[in-house]
Amino acid sequence: MAIRNVRTDGNPVLREICKKVPEVSDSIRKILDDMMETMYEKDGVGLAAPQIGIPKRMVVIDDRDGHVFKLVNPVIVKSEGEQLSQEGCLSVPGYRGRCKRPMKVTVQALNELGKEIVFDAEGFLAVICCHEIDHLDGILYKDKAVEYERVNDN
Questions:
Q1: Is 132 a catalytic residue?
Q2: pLDDT confidence of 153, banded at 50, 70, 90?
Q3: End-to-end CA distance of the chain
Q4: Residue 68 has what DSSP assignment?
Q5: N or C terminus: which one in the chain shows less Cβ crowding within 10 Å?
Q6: pLDDT tens digits, residue range 77-99?
């Protein structure tokens, strides 16, 4: 595994529509492992492949409450409710914002073994799923923020 460089706001890869992964291969699993290591190193709770310069539909998530996912080609197939979430992003350092997100989502994806999974996410986990899947369509949380401000990340 390797820690990858996280691309920051202004890098064009963050605005790309990512390509679907045709199959989950060993090379895809290696990228997912690198993404997990990078996310943990940067103290994040989620990371999308374009954030490390790879415009493919892959995300990793660890909500620090027992929900850990390596997702390939994830899509939100259902959403309900609404919450106002406080968000930050490894690709937008030094800023925080509040975004309207669904309270609950149902996500469909392939796992790291290439098997289809479907799961429900509520609250904070729903926010992470929405935030990371947005990255795959070139959307940063700041694009949706109803409030956005500079913070001291020391």
A1: yes
A2: low
A3: 27
A4: E
A5: C
A6: 999 999 999 999 999 999 999 99
Has residue 115 got a pLDDT over 60? yes
Between CA 75 and CA 132 the distance in angstroms is 11
pTM, full prediction: 0.96
User: For residue 43, is it left (φ>0), alpha (ψ between -120 and 50) or beta?
Assistant: left
- In the chain, which residue ranges form alpha helices assigned H by DSSP? 26-41, 123-135, 141-144
The domain spans of the chain are 12-150
Q: What's the CATH architecture for 12-150?
A: Alpha-Beta Complex (3.90)
Determine how many CB atoms are found less than 10 A away from the CB of residue 1: 11
Residue 70 Cα distances to 9, 12, 80, 129, 130, angstroms: 24, 24, 23, 11, 15
Question: Distance (Å, rounded) from C-alpha 103 to C-alpha 37?
Answer: 28
- Residue 148's pLDDT band, with cuts at 50, 70 and 90, is very high
Residues with Cβ within 8 Å of 140's Cβ and at least 6 positions away in sequence, in order, are 9, 14, 89, 91, 92, 134
Catalytic, out of 23, 41, 116, 132: 132
CB within 8 Å of 43: residues ≥ 6 apart:
none
CA distance 24 to 32: 10
